[in-house]
Amino acid sequence: MKRCVACCAATLAVLPAGAQATGFTDIGQDIRAHQEPSLELHGAMRVRAEGLYNLDLDRGLGPSGRPLFPVPASDPTSQWLSHADLRLRTDLTFYAPGAAVAIKIRLDALDNVGLGSLPDGPPAATSSQRSPDGALRIKRAYGEALTPVGVLVAGRTGSHWGLGMLANGGDCADCDSGDSADRFAFLTPVVGHIFALAYDLSATGPYVNRRVPTRTIDLDPADDARTITFALLRYRSDVSIDRRRLAGKWTIDYGAYVSHRWQDRDVPASYLPVAPPGPATQVSMARGLRATALDGWLRVVGPGARIELELAAILGGIDQPSLVPGVLLSKPVETRQIGAALESELGAPEHALGGGLDAGFASGDPAPGFGAFPEAAARPPQAGDLDGAQTIPPRDARVDNFRFHPDYRVDRILWREIVGTVTDAIYVRPHIRARLARTEVGTLSASLAAVASFAVEERSTPGGQRPLGVELDPTVVYQSRDGLSAAIEHAVLFPLAGLDNPPMRLGARPAQLIRVRLVYAF
Predict the structure, then answer these.
(1) pLDDT at res. 14
(2) Beta strands in 101-250 (DSSP E)
(3) Among 140, 248, 282, 471, which is least packed by CB within 10 angstroms?
(4) Residues with Cβ < 8 Å from 508, sequence gap 6 or more?
């Protein structure tokens, strides 16, 4: 038994420590022997300030009467908007005596709270800032236990896979969201691979109080959404990869998973923003949701190169797409989505120069708008709208646009700020980096990326054309060995015909963004 426990610990110990157990690759990797209860604390304070110039592209209003991006309220013709925010992130790990049990918690304080957004008193006389409701958010809380045959996990964990194109834990310095899952999982190492099985309570409720008012009960298990996932991984940590790379060896890591979600019934009034409180929030109706996600990931790292690829597909449908109890639709909604992302880097990390080519694909849907963040119960989109639902039952019963996770960033203006995420698109992103200076206390480096973006479906774009734009993203970063990171980021978007406004005969004009980011890590 002791040999089996040691084998599990040794195999899982090769996984990276920096991800804070955000996915299958790092669960259990930091469990080690402790003589008595102990606590480890890591985290970072992030402060950002940014200026945004002409992100509405001076191309007027769309059919819905909205610009592509908010404009100043006092003068819609003005060009500049500004914003600053902060976040304190803390990861705590409690280790029980021995080498088998750990409890992990992620706390985010003042998460993305705008600086100056809560003046204490009238703006002209304020001398302090109030704390917002929910200023302290518990993002993750779960336990890990090393057993003789593997690692058992239960609680609210991070959820990340591969490049983060589909599932992203939001651990990067500039991430704003991140996925989590209320999960029971078991991982075991077999013949150099990690096999994982997870069961997620993806959505439950509505709830009613029990006799003891501090506890509730799910009113109907049939309306719960559940997800089961099976994953297979061959994975080495960054430390292990660097050791092999410096020895002139190549490393091939890979993984695949299949995930299936289902929901038999639904209570739409419990989550629709237009639903008033009352008995309607407990009215159940047939749903018949089924969705299967398939994802494959490959990473090849050598002495002077890295290539990483992720390919995903989502297949599924909803037998009854109606959100109104008593109103049934005869035609189910189906979906077939495909997404892919490629990252490459030529030049070793310690070299002064490096570069590469990234690319991505997200399948599209011919409905108007990109379908990045459609609003529930909103009116159907019109040709020329930026966003909107991609299905209008029963006339349009398909949703085929694949959406990258918003925290998987490929640019700074078009996909990140205007659309919100990569969807219905093809992009190509060459990039180059250079180390400008290195001292005993830190490193100064610069990089430049160019992103050319095209729509898959021309009817999805505001301008009715596939070419969307070319963006240049230069960056200067200072990284201190004491934990300080300071970055200055710039971006210029040169929009193309897909962002024009043909009905108003207005061409889209260039936009710019500048951002300063400070990160204090501990």
Answers:
(1) 31
(2) 101-114, 136-147, 150-158, 180-190, 193-203, 207-209, 216-218, 225-234
(3) 248
(4) 57, 58, 59, 463, 469, 495, 496, 499, 500, 501
Per-residue pLDDT at 13: 32
- In the block, residue with structure tokens 């310690």: 350
pLDDT value of position 323: 83
Q: φ, ψ for residue 105 (rounded to 5)?
A: -135, 135
DSSP state of 200: E
Cα–Cα distance list, 385 to 63, 374, 418 (Å) = 6, 11, 12
Q: What is the pTM of this model?
A: 0.91
Residue 53 sits at the vertex; the CA angle it makes with 48 and 57, to the nearest 5 degrees, is 130
pLDDT for position 15: 32
Contact 181, 154 (CB under 8 A): no
Residues 6+ apart with CB under 8 A from 346: 304, 305, 354, 355, 356
Below-70 pLDDT ranges, the chain: 1-21, 274-281, 377
Using DSSP's 3-state secondary structure scheme, residue 257 falls into strand
pLDDT for res 10:
33
Interior angle at CA 481, CA 477 and CA 483, nearest 5: 80
Amino acid symbol at 461? T
Nearest 10 degrees: CA dihedral of 180, 183, 188, 194? -30
- The answer to whether 19 and 13 have CB atoms below 8 angstroms apart is no
CA nearest neighbour of 157 among 135, 180, 130: 180
SS (H, E, C) 142-160: EEEEEECCEEEEEEEEECC
